[in-house]
Amino acid sequence: MKFEESNNYSPISMEENEMLTNVKKNIRITGNSEIDGTVVEGYQCEIDSNKPSEMNHNSWVANKLLYKGNRDQCYKDRAEFENTIYELQDQMLKDHTLNEVADEADEIVE
Q: 57 versus 106: which is more confidently predicted?
């Protein structure tokens, strides 16, 4: 199972573009189930960093013939991918909650 993570975020200064609003940071994770170097099934997930509870994930069969003969391996790879994305989401939810608590504490102090 191969995983790839991309961070679709680049900081943008509001001074550069005052019309820009609602900048979002999303985390995208992709993975493939491969048999003898051929991609059999693909997986993708995207998590909204501002609302980590909002996560979309999907899978697709890339090679039906190999998939049919290797379903057990694909099921294992899909389960591994799902475990990985849920662990990441759990960590992001934990971090998000800690940040919200810290922000609320800062507001109280101010």
A: 57
- What is the distance between the alpha carbons of residues 39 and 11, in angstroms, rounded to a whole number? 34
Structure tokens given for 91? 């960590």
CB atoms within 10 A of CB 109: 6
> What's the chain's average pLDDT?
82
37: left (phi over 0), alpha (psi -120 to 50) or beta: left
Q: What is the radius of gyration, based on Cα positions, of the chain?
A: 19
CA atoms within 13 Å, Cβ hemisphere of 26: 13
**CA distances to 17, 20, 84 from 58, in Å:** 34, 30, 14
Position of tokens 């939810």?
Answer: 93
Give the number of other Cβ atoms within 10 Å of residue 34's Cβ.
Answer: 20
